[in-house]
């Protein structure tokens, strides 16, 4: 939005549905389909799922409520919202850390978006069988030129949409694509879990087993909760600021939580049982695959089904759309921060965001080939940016939001905003308890332990 438009009247969503669709469009993305299953596979299966669900219903809920309410109260994105309550250095820091996170995420998000595009293109060429080969992913990822090319195409799609401002077109498309995605996810999940041998995977994913628990289960589940709900990165401040006063913040956020979690669980059911059914003796190793998991298992599933090419195309097309709507909202939030705070033009800030994406994204995409001998704290570039944003910056951003509420806004002030729609704040006691006693201390412990772990001081 331009400065002058901002001053006149802030754009707003049409109502509950508008907010829920836009927020769910931003929330449902690669985080649900690509990131959640590989973390669940790697960090404990059922016990990861259980802890994740607890986080979504407690801290996740509290953060969704906090950020949306602050956005609607101040009618500003994060930097402005923090400034609204005072110009202290700590406040400025709080605003900026929320605003900078998407700038770290969007470049590597586009790299994964590029992988999705490359698979989509390969299905169009009828490569359903060769993609299912054991080394297909490794071969692709070690080809720097091809990874970079598809990354650039995905990044250009994002930037062009931002520049043209045809967000409404994409939103309309995603209103059609999202329901298809849900249906397809059900179909593929049912197919996956009914394969011979898949039950082991279903059990691993759904039944908590303390044997698989480690401190990393908690660290990664918390990071994933932020990531998937689009919390702790300024997006919800901005979306809250577009929300009308008569819309119930609580009811709409509950819907977002439900939808986002549903898609993540379905993706887990598509991917994890398939590891057991199709990887044979490699199952244990593949559970640890990390970011490549979806690209290794899904092609094996499609290769074994009838109409594999058509289903492969549909699947990657839908993932592409889910990823694009999310990457647009990430990029849009960066662009609007530059516009509002650095007083740049829309064109100028879009170009700047494009340059950031190309620069940092190229490091991530070449981190698996040309630059694979460079690691930071033992991580390749993509893992490092993911760690930096999810395990370090987002916890700090979340703590900043909690401090702002406790110190400046007060819990009563926040409740007043939540009830401005005329409906009661149902989970107010839970919210207050989490904010007062749990959130800051708990997030801080996790932040410190994950940083110490990365520096090799402790091993978790
Ligand atoms: N929540 C998105 C996902 O799950 C990622 C995202 C975060 C998108 C923040 C926009 C803003 O993929």
If you had to describe this structure to a student in words, what would you say it looks like?
It is globular and about 60 Å long. It has one domain (about 5-455): Hydantoin permease (Orthogonal Bundle), CATH 1.10.4160. About 75% of the residues lie in helices and about 0% in strands. With about 450 residues, it is an all-alpha fold. The chain is built from 20 helices and no strands. The protein has helices at about 5-10, 15-25, 30-40, 45-75, 80-85, 90-125, 135-140, 145-165, 165-195, 200-205, 215-230, 235-240, 250-280, 285, 295-305, 310-340, 345-365, 380-410, 410-420, 430-455. Residues about 1-10 have low confidence and may be disordered. The termini are far apart. Helix 17 crosses helix 18. It binds phenylalanine (PHE).
